[in-house]
Amino acid sequence: MIKQKFLTGITKTLCAGTLLFSSLVNAQTQPLDKVIAVVDDDVVMASEIHQRVQMVMAQLQSKQTQAPPINVIQRQVLDQLILESLQLQIGDRVGVTISDQELDQAIDRMRTANNFSEAQFQEQLQKDGLSLGALRDQIRRDMIIDRVQKGSVNRRINVTEQEVKNFLKSKQGQFWASPDYNLGHMVIPVPSSATEAEQNELKAKAEDIYQRLNNGEDFRRVAVSESKGRDALNGGDMGWRKLAQLPDLFANGVRDLEAGEITQPLRSGAGYHILKVYGKRGNTEQMIDQSKVRHILLKTTAILDDQQAQTKLAEIRQQILDGEDFGELAKEYSDDTGSVLSGGDLGWSLPGKFVPEFEKTINATEIGEVSKPFRSQFGWHILIVDERRRQDMSEQVRTNQATRLLRDRRFEEERINWLQDLHRKAFIDIRS
């Protein structure tokens, strides 16, 4: 089976590191298709639910986790497909597109991670019952959802300079070299509009789940059945997280737990959370490699879509390769108001200062080289690395990482709230 480490959204949720589109998908066929749900301007078909259920079943089987009743999985899958549809429709409205080049790079990373040649990769896809075209469609779908979530949710999060200072002065901030935790997570949402009776019912449900877990029920199986979190269909697996990356509620809940232990239900603004600690490990500090970087940013708009922005940056890049000055072209074309007057100068890079796509391109670009166009949540970029150095930048690193951590640890709760708002405002007609 093919290991994949780069995907987000439902592919990551269902596959959790392995491509498991197994013979289960081909073992059953749907003779007739029909509309199961109308979601604003889209529909969810019976065939989509069938296919996704089989993927979930294969994933649970690979983990030797007993599957809940099929109707429970079908209900969870329908809920998730409805939310995916709403997010994909947003992506379509705002012009989020994934280029063939990005998909090629994603497929290549998957192939490389598995140490497969092109022929071996194609052979494995056939064994798993998946065509390359179907894989590309799923990756494209996941990447669009990921970008819609990042753009929509991050706009709802504001981290102030004072918050960063307070965090760094706190006991948690001072305890920066904290252990990493391998966590499972499930959430029982409590809508903001819930009555007192409904809140009490959901609280009782969370407490009942906690008792079932203490009595020996499998955490992953219960998460698939009961949780509404983003990793529910993956058994609630969050993977390894540093304590400082977790919301205070989660960090305080798991701080003193050992591997195998479970938190009592933890109440947040989004609902009741239950976490399981699968493992813990330490962390070490190291010297920082820095790069002095300039870039040119083109933001996508209703007039300039992804493909046009990428093409325009490729033309600008060629002008630079032909001898024109990077800084002057940045002043003329860049949409980054913070760096345009300085010719695109972003100063010295630090871990956490730039988004992952930007940092990855910096690391892959030689001194004096102009990168090919690449996309981040802000738009399309090209960059040039002017210098590199290695030195101790602990204080600045901590500040930048604290900012990112404060934002990241709010992301999941804000994502849940955003998805609930999205669902509440949508037209959804579920048909039997």
Give the helices and strands, then pairings:
Layout: E1 2-3, H1 9-15, E2 18-19, H2 23-27, E3 35-39, E4 42-45, H3 46-62, H4 70-94, H5 100-113, H6 118-127, H7 132-154, H8 161-169, H9 171-174, E5 180-189, H10 196-214, H11 219-226, E6 237-242, H12 248-254, E7 266-267, E8 271-281, E9 288-298, H13 306-321, H14 326-333, E10 345-348, H15 356-364, E11 374-376, E12 379-391, H16 394-425, E13 428-430
Antiparallel strand pairs: 1-2, 3-4, 3-13, 5-6, 5-8, 7-8, 9-10, 9-12, 11-12
Helix pairs in contact: 3-4, 4-7, 7-16, 8-16
What does this protein structure show overall?
The protein is an alpha+beta fold and 432 residues long. The protein contains 16 helices and 13 strands. It is globular.
In short:
By secondary structure, the protein is of the alpha+beta class.
The number of domains: 3
The residue fraction in helices comes out at 40-55%
Report the order of strands and helices.
EHEHEEHHHHHHHEHHEHEEEHHEHEEHE
- Look at the structure and name the CATH superfamily of the largest domain: Porin chaperone SurA, peptide-binding domain
Radius of gyration (CA) equals 23 Å
The end-to-end span amounts to: 36 Å
Overall body shape: globular
